[in-house]
Amino acid sequence: MPFNKIDVKKEQDGELILQAKNIKKYFPIKGGILRTTIGHVKAVDNVSIDIKKGETLGIVGESGSGKSTLGRVILRLLEPTEGQIIFENNDISHLGNRQLRDYRKNMQIVFQDPFASLNSKMSVAELIEEPLVVQTSLKKSERKEKAIELLEKVGLRAEDRLKYPHEFSGGQRQRISIARALALHPKFVICDEPVSALDVSIQAQVLNLMSDLQDEFNLTYLFISHDLSVVKHISNRVAVMYLGRIVEIAPKKNLYDQPLHPYTQALLSSAPTTNIQNRREKIILKGDLPSPANPPSGCAFRTRCPLVHEKCVEVRPELKGMGNGHFVSCHLHT
After folding, report:
1. Of 67, 83, 194, 274, whose CA is between 20 and 30 Å from 45?
2. What CATH number has the domain spanning 16-106+184-250?
3. How confident is the model at residue 279 (pLDDT cuts 50, 70, 90)?
4. In the chain, where are the structural domains located?
């Protein structure tokens, strides 16, 4: 993938913009004639992350690991079962819709499928101007001017505002989604698999655009993806999720050069590379991802881990600092 403009970014040392503390999101399983709760799907199970202003935190993991659910909980699109969400030192975990309104304009999301996330019955102008209508008192002419400005920022033309989503390619629709997300000048944007549905050549263009916009608008990204190469090029730090839990988090270089958790090692060994000298020995994981409705006791990864031992069955490992901002949840490093 030709990443031309995205360079290795400096580590961020600024203040925190967001903290998620001990986040849990359990979905009830209903059964029986009375549809009573007979269990829970533990989509996110006690996750804590900190995100600094201006940085990009990448989250990787298999499908079903809870990445997208975590992003939606952070934005309060899904209500957390437990835990705290702190945005700019304000606890927004239990705010009502009216109280959340002021925070909504500072916290936006770009979804995976731009066609599904854009209303096909609305023109591009209407899509981009809608948040301006709801959140600002701008006049119609000012909203039009703003929409044109945003379209040009994302590489589209002013006349495109009169078209509808079906008239664009997938990459162009994602540019429209990005323009819509930036309409209110947010500080924090969650990017939920924003390029996974695009062709490889278009992926690079969109990622370069997002990097440029981050610098121009001083944005903070939470970047969710299953593509390790994409996350490596756009992130400052990377968190690895498995079955609703974070098993490792570290600055990008540390994690890719020296992964500590067996799951991270397996993920990186399976990633394609053109560097023959640094190619890792491929680690084949046995079995499938366990059900989040009935996760294994102890370490969630133990049923597939090649290095499992007795303690892994009984005791759930906690994230432990290994120095230089590198944390891992594994009994091999306790």
Report:
1. 194
2. 3.40.50.300
3. low
4. 16-106+184-250
Is 2 in contact with 207 (CB distance < 8 Å)? Answer: no
pLDDT tens per residue, range 106-159: 999 999 888 888 999 999 999 999 999 999 999 999 999 999 999 999 999 999
Cα 147 to Cα 54, 108, 118, 143, 179: the distances in Å are 24, 17, 15, 6, 8
Nearby residues of 301 by Cβ (< 8 Å), 6 or more positions away: 242, 243, 247, 261, 262, 263
Kindly write down the DSSP assignment for every residue of 218-278, as one continuous string: T-EEEEE-S-HHHHHHH-SEEEEEETTEEEEEEEHHHHHHS--SHHHHHHHHHS--S-STT
Residue whose entry in the numeric block shows the structure tokens 């990787």: 60
Helix (H) / strand (E) containing 41 = strand 36-52
